[in-house]
Write a structure and sequence with these properties.
Elements: H1 3-12, H2 15-45, H3 64-83
Helix pairs in contact: 1-2
Length: about 90
């Protein structure tokens, strides 16, 4: 349906229907701009010092589980081969 057709239908339904339709059309017109904004924000959230020119101190702090996992992996890389258990 075209905007004009919708407005004709809304006018037949009276002033409250017309106001609802006009409000709806205004919101629909905002959708493309809002989608672009969401895409830009998602790109920003995914950036860190590894995939942008930002310095490492600007990265978000890691959770306790992430820090423990990193420490465990570092330990395994450092000591398991000396014990002969790294395969």
């Amino acid at each position: 349906m075209r905007r004009e057709e919708i407005e004709v239908i809304a006018l037949e339904g009276g002033e409250p229907a017309r106001e609802l339709v006009v409000g709806l059309l205004e919101q629909v017109a905002q959708v493309p701009a809002l989608r672009e904004r969401i895409e830009e924000l998602e790109r920003r959230v995914g950036r860190d010092s590894g995939n942008s020119s930002q310095p490492p101190p600007s990265d978000a702090p890691k959770s306790r589980a992430e820090r423990r996992r990193a420490a465990r992996d570092a330990y395994k890389r450092t000591f398991c081969c000396f014990r002969g258990s790294c395969g």
